[in-house]
Amino acid sequence: MGDILSQDEIDALLSAVADGGDFGDIGDDSSDDNISGSYGASPSFDSSQAMSSANTPTYNPLYMDDDDDDDDLGDRVLSLYDFRRPDRVSKDQMRTIQNMHEGYARIFSTSLTNYLRTFVEIEVVSVDQLTYSEFIMSISNPSCIHLFKMDPIDVSAIFEMNPSLVFFIIDRLFGGQGRVSEHNRELTRIEQNVIRSIVSRGLDDLAGVWEHMGEFSPKITDYETNPMFVQIAPPGETVILITFEVHMLKSSGLMSICFPHMIIEQVFSSLGGQSWMTTQAQVTPETRVMMESEIQNLTVPLSVLVGNTKLTIRDLLQLETGDILCLDKNKDSDLIVQIGGKSKMAGKSGVVGRKKAVKITDILADEVPGMEQDYDEEGAEYE
Fold first, then answer.
1. What local confidence, expressed as pLDDT, does residue 24 receive?
2. Rounded to whole angstroms, how far apart are CA atoms 189 and 169?
3. Which residues pair with 339 in a beta bridge?
4. Average pLDDT over residues 253-262
5. CATH code where residue 114 lies
6. What distances in angstroms separate CA 146 from CA 71, 99, 121, 171, one per listed residue?
7. To 5 degrees, how large is the angle CA 378–CA 356–CA 347?
């Protein structure tokens, strides 16, 4: 057996490989003799072949010229890639998910506006792809966490509401002005039932947004306050986190929906951006019925404009009880009925019982598809 190389000889060998040098000086004479004896007599070389080999450039696979490497890269921009967290959802699917849930935010804001009797605006803050452990660490403790399933998909997802938003809604529904609790606490049984009804409305709206991908029936399966006790996926599993910001009066709070990657694979895998735009342009009868039912429950302000006039500041300051103002309307002219501050109908003033009333005589603008303009001579019916 030949001698084992020392550490100095190994270092010299590695240096020679890196520099493209000669290996002949590595080791002492005794080692050279042993190597020659092991492999027989040293082969003889022609001097002319040695000269030609010296003049011929050799290729060393372990050596790369920095200038050639820079020329190959050109103007390309390199970005870091974490192999421990691969992107399992494509950018096209992420954009589709964001567009879809921006529409969901508008629909759910309308539902909350009707339910809370105050203006609510919801917008999508971000759509992120992260691990389940990172999502759990981002939730406060205690929090309002509802686990739900979109039947027939047998995979749980999370609907989470920030405590500041929850206590604002509870205070508003219980007759308050919508104040946020100073202390973060767990919800009582009554408060849990109230928030559960709101979450159920949100999930019903979510199923309506998903209807072009299939028929889904959302169902709340569990409620939890400690995020450490919620386990819907392995810690390293990829999840999609959709974060919403809810604005109400002078307060705001965050709301989020977390979908495991298994749901994304089953629901969104075959849905691209182009197919999403195509389905958006199609209105199904079910969607029209749902929108009509939502609109019919809306409350809109209605007012009657008797007439207009102009006064100088001097006349305005001298007005007293009993003064008469002349308007720009004749006595037989129709009054203007305004809906939401916009003139929509004309009518005649009258009395029904002991109350003043207005009889609709004409429709000024037909902006609602399918509205009939044929009215009988009796006009609108008074209640």
1. 54
2. 15
3. 302, 342
4. 90
5. 3.40.1550.10
6. 55, 24, 22, 20
7. 45
Task: Say yes or no: 274 and 311 in one domain.
Answer: no
224/160 Cα distance (integer angstroms): 10
What letter would DSSP give residue 235?
Answer: T
Name the residue among 218, 227, 219, 163 with its Cα closest to residue 195: 163
The reply to whether 151 falls in a domain is: yes
Side chain identity, residue 43: P
Write down how long the chain is: 383
Q: Is the pLDDT of residue 145 over 90?
A: yes
Q: Count how many domains the chain has.
A: 3
Asked whether the predicted pLDDT for residue 54 surpasses 50, the reply is: no
Residue 371 pLDDT greater than 50, yes or no: no
If asked whether residues 153 and 281 sit together in one domain, one would say yes
Residue pointed to by tokens 């809810």: 246
Whole domain around residue 61: which residue ranges?
A: 7-73
Q: Is residue 368 part of a domain?
A: no
Of 250, 278, 296, the residue that ends a domain is 296
User: Quick check: is 154 in a domain?
Assistant: yes
Boundary (domain end) residue, out of 24, 45, 73: 73
Is residue 80 assigned to a domain? no
pLDDT of residue 41: 45
Average per-residue pLDDT for the chain: 76
Q: What is the pTM of this model?
A: 0.52
User: If you ran DSSP here, which 8-state letter would residue 39 be given?
Assistant: H
Buried-state track 91-119, b at ≥16 Cβ within 10 A, e below 16:
eebbebbeebbbebbebbbbbbbeebeee
**Do 254 and 162 form a contact (C-beta atoms < 8 A)?**
yes
- For 35-45, the pLDDT digits (tens) are 444 444 444 44
